[in-house]
Write a structure and sequence with these properties.
By secondary structure, this protein is of the alpha/beta class. It has a single domain, classed as Class I glutamine amidotransferase (GATase) domain (Rossmann fold, 3-Layer(aba) Sandwich). The chain has helices at 2-12, 20-25, 28-31, 45-57, 105-109, 113-124, 136-141, 157-162, 187-196, and strands spanning 34-38, 61-66, 72-74, 80-82, 85-86, 97-100, 129-132, 149-150, 166-167, 172-175, 178-181. The strands form 3 sheets. It has a 7-stranded mixed β-sheet, with helices on both faces. Helix 4 links the parallel strand 1 and strand 2 (61-66). It is globular and about 35 Å long. The chain starts with a helix and ends with a helix.
Length: 199
């Protein structure tokens, strides 16, 4: 477990984690694209950092937004994440996609009006939005799931259904601009689907 935490901590410090091969493939169009990821305490460490690092490796600019700018939040397993901007500074017009990590953070994120408004605007603009595990709570509170096909951790299945979504038991579900997934083991397939929306 200590080796696992040390590895994640190392990865979390890599602001520009770009592999040579993926860097060569990244074109100017991709490098100009900006993705926002929400962050708050008790996020699921892998569900925050795997997507962020994968996108940075593909040439995207990724910003972390928390309720406080330049604040260090700590994940469920002790991995830190420092916010780049605060919720009241973000504008949906400035971003090309949104990621919502899982863990217990979504239950905190859903209480911020700026988070919900940003999520609504991204969905209305049909920009790629990714939710994994408990992240669906944020979209439930933003009232954007009616008639959408999604998945999540089974623990919030009823919440999504009650919000008007069609819940399915699959590792990854793509419904238009919305990509959803269930757990950390699904991350590679989740990000493959998210990245596909930019092609």
């Amino acid at each position: 477990m200590n080796n696992y935490l040390s590895y994640l901590n190392l990865l979390s410090q890599q602001k520009h984690f770009i592999l040579v091969d993926t860097f060569k493939r990244a074109n100017m169009k991709t490098s100009e694209r900006k993705i926002l990821s929400f962050v708050h305490s008790d996020f699921e460490d892998l569900e925050l950092w795997y997507p962020v690092l994968r996108l940075r490796g593909e040439g995207f600019k990724v910003h972390l937004a928390g309720d406080i700018t330049n604040h260090v939040y700590v994940g469920k397993y002790g991995v830190p994440a420092k916010s780049d901007v605060s919720f009241d500074e973000i504008d949906a017009d400035d971003y090309d996609g949104l990621l919502v990590p899982g863990g217990w953070a979504p239950d905190k994120l859903r209480r911020f009006p700026d988070v919900l408004e940003f999520t609504r605007k991204m969905m209305e603009a049909n920009k790629p939005v990714g939710q994994i595990c408990h992240a669906g709570w944020v979209l439930v509170s933003a009232n954007v799931l009616k008639g959408r096909k999604v998945t999540s951790t089974p623990g919030i299945k009823d919440d999504l259904i009650n919000a008007g979504a069609e819940w399915v038991d699959e590792a990854v579900v793509v419904d238009g601009n919305l990509v959803s997934s269930q757990k950390p083991a699904d991350l590679p397939f989740y990000m493959n689907a998210f990245l596909e929306l930019f092609k």
